[in-house]
Amino acid sequence: MARSGLNTSGNVGSDVPKVKLTKESFQRSLRIFRYVLPYRVKFILGMALLALSSGTFMAFPWVAGKLVDAANGKRVTTPGGITLDINRIALVLFGVILMQGIFSFGRIYFFTQVSEFTVRDIRKALYNKFMTLPIPFFETHRVGEITSRITSDVGQIQDTFSLTLAEFFRQIVTLVVSTILIMVASVKLSLFMLATFPVLVLLAFVFGRSIRKLAKTTQDELAKTNVIVEETLQAINTVKAFTNELFEVGRYNSSLNKAVKAALQSNLYRGAFVSFVIIGLFGGIILVLWRGASLVYAGELTQGQLVSFIIYTAFIGASVGGLGEMYGKVQSTLGASERILEILGEPSEPTHKPRIAGIAPLSVRGDIDYQNVAFRYPTRPDLAVLKDINFEIQAGEKIALVGPSGAGKSTIVQLLMQFYELSGGKILIDGREVRQYDLTELRRHIGIVPQETLLFGGTIRENIAYGKTDATDAEITAAARKANAWQFISSFPEGLDTVVGERGIKLSGGQRQRVAIARAILKNPAILILDEATSSLDSESEKLVQGAMDELMQNRTSIIIAHRLSTIRKVDKILVIEGGRIVEQGTHDELSHNENGLYANLLKLQFELS
Ligand SMILES: Nc1ncnc2c1ncn2[C@@H]1O[C@H](COP(=O)(O)OP(=O)(O)OP(=O)(O)O)[C@@H](O)[C@H]1O
Fold first, then answer.
1. In this structure, are 163 and 34 located in the same domain?
2. How do residues 225-240 score in pLDDT, each as one tens digit?
3. Closest ligand 1 atom to 135 CA
4. Ligand 1 centroid vs 535 CA: distance in angstroms?
5. Does ligand 1 lie within 6 Å of residue 404's CB atom?
6. What's the pTM value of the predicted model, to 2 decimals?
7. Which domain holds residue 167?
8. Where is the ABC transmembrane type-1 domain (predicted)?
């Protein structure tokens, strides 16, 4: 049966890895069926209709055989003793097919609903999980790998629920019923057939398996060419800037040639396989025909019975072949559900705890206290990124973190957001350890203006409202004004409705930053993290951004990761970080007078550079 691409997963790539079919893997994967449970009534109805449609389908060759017998002048009677002539038998045949058509419609109707709803629920659960998984998970898994869970793995399962399962059931019914019916027609011929056919089918199966392995090589080669296309298109600016267009074309061509070579080779075997199937299986049918014809000649079998017999034999061959193919599909599905269940079983961040009624929402003053904080990234456990960090900020104070690249400045603030678990020490906010807060509640009170602002595809309005999704237009406009962003937004013909992001207009670095500042203003957090952009802006833009930042920092505890020392002269305290430690701290005046200090040196360096 051809695979249909008419579901929400489209055509599923056959590159979904498989697992070995063992009792354990099977049992583990069956847990995915709990997503079918809410739709069990529809599922059972679908199964019942499937049984009926498979049953009526099985009656077809039988009745067709009777038609041939009637044509040969034999008397055909129903079990009730009513004699049927050719016309009536043809009508019965038509009735059988009509019922088969109606049952099939019902089966598809119910199974599609079950598969669409089930798959929707699995996708929802997965996406929900993606959103709540901790940051380290995303650092240890590639984005492509994660998204393929929600696309191809789920698609594989959808295929199973909508097609494979039905097909599997139908093949089994066909196999069992056909075998019984041919036995009834003629035990002699059946035994002869069963002695020859299964051998051929077994051979075909073994042959088919080795071909699948070759097909996998082709797919791998094709995947490699796709990687080249994706990478180069994503970095097309780099390709052009290095004038490597022809180099890439050459690389793509040679990779494509390899894929074609592999495809041709595997298709050579495929061709051999197809002719084996044709010659072998049809040869088998000829053998059965020959033996059957002898039996008809000897009067041991009617012509009609022979016709039914041959059709059933073809059915048996098709279903044995189909079951072999299904083995691969079942393996893929088991693999897919195992991987999905694995992700669903990953521990989420303890966010969004249900709020207990009557308890006022958390309010945060903004005192911050780092005590002996030590940290290693889970992906690089051998590198101590932070060693014994101690500092304190009173609510409303502004501090700046400065130091060479890679010193650990960003890491210090990421820990405040609790993106990672500390390796040692503790962080207190308002005198309480951060781990004791509800993560979502706490993060709601921390605002961040990142180094590189990522705008989501959508309007400027939506991007600003990301800081407070239920903000009114007046609030959004006010925030944009305070962020010095209103000027450029109102200069666009569509104003706040201007579309930005991949399909919209591109905002400049300074404009993007001001959108980020407007976002943070709307969020109105008690604690603010400003990660200064390393790329410098022109002085006009710089002034606007700086003004917006000053506005934003008012009355909030602010931590500035500073790259340009000129912007932090007014902060209450500067922490100089080097190699994961605080090596100096004090005000700008204090530090700049310490001639041998790192800060004074950095200051000198920047002065010389500018
Ligand atoms: N997600 C991560 N996984 C593993 N290592 C990381 C990760 N992020 C940063 N590091 C490492 O941690 C160290 C400190 O990085 P961090 O980004 O905190 O430095 P920084 O002082 O903010 O640097 P810059 O000024 O260049 O932004 C570096 O050695 C860096 O390679």
1. yes
2. 888 898 889 889 889 9
3. 1
4. 17
5. no
6. 0.76
7. 15-184+329-349
8. 44-332
